[in-house]
Amino acid sequence: DSGVTQTPKHLITATGQRVTLRCSPRSGDLSVYWYQQSLDQGLQFLIQYYNGEERAKGNILERFSAQQFPDLHSELNLSSLELGDSALYFCASSPSLRREIHEQYFGPGTRLTVT
Amino acid sequence: DAKTTQPTSMDCAEGRAANLPCNHSTISGNEYVYWYRQIHSQGPQYIIHGLKNNETNEMASLIITEDRKSSTLILPHATLRDTAVYYCIVRVAEAGNKLTFGGGTRVLVKP
Asked: Average pLDDT of chain A?
Protein backbone atom coordinates (compact mmCIF):
# COMPACT_ATOMS: atom_id res chain seq x y z
CA ASP A 1 0.00 0.00 0.00
CA SER A 2 1.63 3.23 -1.21
CA GLY A 3 -0.57 5.51 0.89
CA VAL A 4 -2.00 7.19 -2.21
CA THR A 5 -5.72 6.67 -2.66
CA GLN A 6 -7.79 7.08 -5.80
CA THR A 7 -11.53 7.01 -6.32
CA PRO A 8 -13.45 5.58 -7.96
CA LYS A 9 -11.73 2.32 -8.77
CA HIS A 10 -13.81 1.77 -11.89
CA LEU A 11 -15.88 4.15 -13.96
CA ILE A 12 -18.06 3.36 -16.96
CA THR A 13 -19.58 6.22 -18.86
CA ALA A 14 -20.79 7.17 -22.31
CA THR A 15 -19.17 9.27 -25.01
CA GLY A 16 -19.68 12.98 -24.57
CA GLN A 17 -19.96 12.77 -20.81
CA ARG A 18 -17.81 14.37 -18.13
CA VAL A 19 -16.18 12.60 -15.18
CA THR A 20 -14.04 13.55 -12.20
CA LEU A 21 -11.29 11.36 -10.83
CA ARG A 22 -10.06 11.97 -7.32
CA CYS A 23 -6.66 11.46 -5.73
CA SER A 24 -5.50 11.80 -2.14
CA PRO A 25 -1.70 11.90 -1.86
CA ARG A 26 0.33 10.36 0.92
CA SER A 27 0.13 12.29 4.15
CA GLY A 28 2.42 15.30 3.90
CA ASP A 29 3.18 14.95 0.19
CA LEU A 30 2.88 18.27 -1.60
CA SER A 31 3.40 17.15 -5.19
CA VAL A 32 0.76 15.28 -7.19
CA TYR A 33 1.20 13.82 -10.66
CA TRP A 34 -1.39 12.38 -13.04
CA TYR A 35 -0.54 9.68 -15.57
CA GLN A 36 -2.64 7.94 -18.22
CA GLN A 37 -2.05 4.36 -19.30
CA SER A 38 -3.75 3.16 -22.45
CA LEU A 39 -3.05 0.02 -24.44
CA ASP A 40 -1.57 1.84 -27.41
CA GLN A 41 0.22 4.72 -25.69
CA GLY A 42 1.64 3.14 -22.55
CA LEU A 43 2.14 5.19 -19.39
CA GLN A 44 2.13 8.89 -20.15
CA PHE A 45 2.54 11.89 -17.88
CA LEU A 46 -0.39 14.29 -17.98
CA ILE A 47 0.10 17.04 -15.40
CA GLN A 48 1.75 17.89 -12.08
CA TYR A 49 0.64 20.08 -9.20
CA TYR A 50 2.72 21.26 -6.30
CA ASN A 51 1.09 22.74 -3.22
CA GLY A 52 -1.94 23.88 -5.18
CA GLU A 53 -0.13 25.28 -8.20
CA GLU A 54 0.27 23.71 -11.62
CA ARG A 55 3.94 22.92 -12.10
CA ALA A 56 4.34 20.89 -15.28
CA LYS A 57 2.20 19.79 -18.17
CA GLY A 58 2.63 16.76 -20.37
CA ASN A 59 0.44 15.27 -23.06
CA ILE A 60 -2.81 16.48 -21.56
CA LEU A 61 -5.71 17.18 -23.88
CA GLU A 62 -7.55 20.49 -23.70
CA ARG A 63 -10.69 18.54 -22.75
CA PHE A 64 -8.89 17.47 -19.57
CA SER A 65 -8.15 19.67 -16.60
CA ALA A 66 -6.93 19.20 -13.06
CA GLN A 67 -6.60 21.05 -9.81
CA GLN A 68 -5.12 20.58 -6.38
CA PHE A 69 -7.07 21.76 -3.38
CA PRO A 70 -5.84 23.34 -0.12
CA ASP A 71 -6.05 19.96 1.62
CA LEU A 72 -3.70 18.71 -1.16
CA HIS A 73 -6.09 16.26 -2.73
CA SER A 74 -6.33 16.54 -6.49
CA GLU A 75 -9.03 16.03 -9.08
CA LEU A 76 -8.69 15.24 -12.77
CA ASN A 77 -11.66 16.34 -14.85
CA LEU A 78 -12.25 14.69 -18.20
CA SER A 79 -14.94 16.15 -20.44
CA SER A 80 -16.49 15.43 -23.86
CA LEU A 81 -15.28 11.90 -23.43
CA GLU A 82 -14.31 9.83 -26.44
CA LEU A 83 -13.81 6.10 -26.83
CA GLY A 84 -10.06 6.67 -26.95
CA ASP A 85 -10.08 8.13 -23.45
CA SER A 86 -10.67 4.67 -22.05
CA ALA A 87 -7.58 3.99 -19.96
CA LEU A 88 -6.13 3.55 -16.52
CA TYR A 89 -5.50 6.86 -14.80
CA PHE A 90 -2.87 6.90 -12.09
CA CYS A 91 -2.09 9.50 -9.53
CA ALA A 92 1.31 9.67 -7.87
CA SER A 93 2.70 11.83 -5.10
CA SER A 94 6.09 12.83 -3.77
CA PRO A 95 7.03 14.71 -0.62
CA SER A 96 8.47 17.96 -1.84
CA LEU A 97 10.62 19.57 -4.45
CA ARG A 98 13.80 18.75 -2.60
CA ARG A 99 16.49 17.45 -4.89
CA GLU A 100 17.18 14.31 -2.91
CA ILE A 101 13.60 13.05 -3.11
CA HIS A 102 13.61 10.56 -5.94
CA GLU A 103 10.62 8.31 -5.53
CA GLN A 104 7.08 8.81 -6.68
CA TYR A 105 4.38 6.80 -4.95
CA PHE A 106 1.55 5.63 -7.17
CA GLY A 107 -2.06 5.01 -6.31
CA PRO A 108 -4.01 1.95 -7.46
CA GLY A 109 -5.51 3.80 -10.41
CA THR A 110 -8.97 4.46 -11.81
CA ARG A 111 -10.06 2.36 -14.75
CA LEU A 112 -12.19 4.47 -17.08
CA THR A 113 -14.27 2.80 -19.75
CA VAL A 114 -16.04 5.00 -22.27
CA THR A 115 -18.79 3.25 -24.24
CA ASP B 1 15.63 12.79 -20.64
CA ALA B 2 17.86 10.09 -22.15
CA LYS B 3 16.19 7.30 -24.08
CA THR B 4 16.42 3.75 -22.75
CA THR B 5 16.32 0.39 -24.51
CA GLN B 6 15.11 -2.74 -22.77
CA PRO B 7 14.27 -6.25 -23.99
CA THR B 8 10.55 -6.64 -24.55
CA SER B 9 10.24 -9.72 -22.41
CA MET B 10 12.16 -12.35 -20.49
CA ASP B 11 11.45 -15.43 -18.43
CA CYS B 12 13.07 -16.32 -15.15
CA ALA B 13 12.99 -19.41 -12.94
CA GLU B 14 11.59 -19.03 -9.45
CA GLY B 15 14.37 -18.83 -6.85
CA ARG B 16 16.99 -17.84 -9.38
CA ALA B 17 18.45 -14.40 -9.91
CA ALA B 18 16.79 -12.28 -12.59
CA ASN B 19 19.12 -9.93 -14.46
CA LEU B 20 17.31 -7.17 -16.35
CA PRO B 21 19.45 -5.13 -18.75
CA CYS B 22 18.92 -1.55 -19.82
CA ASN B 23 20.85 0.48 -22.38
CA HIS B 24 21.04 4.24 -22.00
CA SER B 25 23.97 5.20 -24.23
CA THR B 26 23.01 8.90 -24.40
CA ILE B 27 22.82 9.40 -20.65
CA SER B 28 24.11 12.74 -19.39
CA GLY B 29 26.36 13.23 -16.39
CA ASN B 30 23.59 14.57 -14.20
CA GLU B 31 21.01 11.91 -15.09
CA TYR B 32 20.08 9.13 -12.70
CA VAL B 33 18.95 5.60 -13.58
CA TYR B 34 15.65 4.60 -11.98
CA TRP B 35 13.80 1.32 -11.96
CA TYR B 36 10.08 0.95 -11.39
CA ARG B 37 7.86 -2.05 -11.84
CA GLN B 38 4.16 -2.51 -12.52
CA ILE B 39 2.43 -5.65 -11.42
CA HIS B 40 -0.59 -6.37 -13.61
CA SER B 41 -2.36 -2.99 -13.92
CA GLN B 42 -1.47 -1.90 -10.40
CA GLY B 43 0.23 1.45 -9.87
CA PRO B 44 3.96 1.45 -10.70
CA GLN B 45 6.24 0.80 -7.76
CA TYR B 46 9.65 2.36 -7.19
CA ILE B 47 12.45 -0.20 -6.90
CA ILE B 48 15.82 1.51 -6.86
CA HIS B 49 17.88 4.30 -8.39
CA GLY B 50 21.53 5.17 -8.89
CA LEU B 51 23.87 7.73 -10.40
CA LYS B 52 27.16 5.91 -10.96
CA ASN B 53 27.81 3.62 -8.03
CA ASN B 54 26.19 0.24 -7.65
CA GLU B 55 23.25 0.30 -5.30
CA THR B 56 21.44 -2.33 -3.24
CA ASN B 57 18.29 -2.26 -1.20
CA GLU B 58 15.88 -4.82 0.18
CA MET B 59 14.25 -5.31 -3.22
CA ALA B 60 17.08 -5.40 -5.70
CA SER B 61 20.58 -4.44 -6.76
CA LEU B 62 21.49 -1.99 -9.48
CA ILE B 63 24.74 -2.37 -11.38
CA ILE B 64 25.78 0.59 -13.54
CA THR B 65 28.68 0.21 -15.96
CA GLU B 66 31.66 2.48 -15.54
CA ASP B 67 30.81 4.46 -18.69
CA ARG B 68 27.19 4.65 -17.45
CA LYS B 69 25.84 3.65 -20.84
CA SER B 70 24.06 0.59 -19.51
CA SER B 71 22.82 -0.90 -16.27
CA THR B 72 21.43 -4.14 -14.90
CA LEU B 73 18.71 -4.59 -12.33
CA ILE B 74 19.20 -7.77 -10.33
CA LEU B 75 16.40 -9.46 -8.44
CA PRO B 76 18.46 -11.87 -6.34
CA HIS B 77 15.87 -14.59 -5.70
CA ALA B 78 12.92 -14.14 -8.02
CA THR B 79 9.51 -15.18 -6.74
CA LEU B 80 6.23 -15.58 -8.59
CA ARG B 81 5.18 -12.20 -7.15
CA ASP B 82 8.01 -10.56 -9.07
CA THR B 83 6.16 -11.19 -12.34
CA ALA B 84 5.66 -7.67 -13.66
CA VAL B 85 6.69 -5.11 -16.25
CA TYR B 86 9.97 -3.49 -15.26
CA TYR B 87 10.73 0.03 -16.42
CA CYS B 88 14.19 1.55 -16.67
CA ILE B 89 13.98 5.35 -16.63
CA VAL B 90 16.78 7.86 -16.99
CA ARG B 91 16.18 11.39 -15.85
CA VAL B 92 17.66 14.41 -14.19
CA ALA B 93 16.87 14.41 -10.49
CA GLU B 94 15.47 17.88 -10.57
CA ALA B 95 12.99 18.56 -7.91
CA GLY B 96 9.63 17.07 -8.72
CA ASN B 97 10.56 15.85 -12.17
CA LYS B 98 8.04 13.72 -14.06
CA LEU B 99 8.69 10.10 -15.01
CA THR B 100 8.89 9.17 -18.69
CA PHE B 101 8.03 5.50 -19.14
CA GLY B 102 9.11 3.45 -22.13
CA GLY B 103 7.86 0.00 -23.04
CA GLY B 104 9.64 -1.81 -20.21
CA THR B 105 10.51 -5.49 -19.93
CA ARG B 106 7.75 -7.96 -19.23
CA VAL B 107 9.24 -10.46 -16.77
CA LEU B 108 7.55 -13.79 -16.22
CA VAL B 109 8.78 -15.78 -13.24
CA LYS B 110 8.06 -19.46 -13.75
CA PRO B 111 7.85 -22.16 -11.07
From this structure: 93
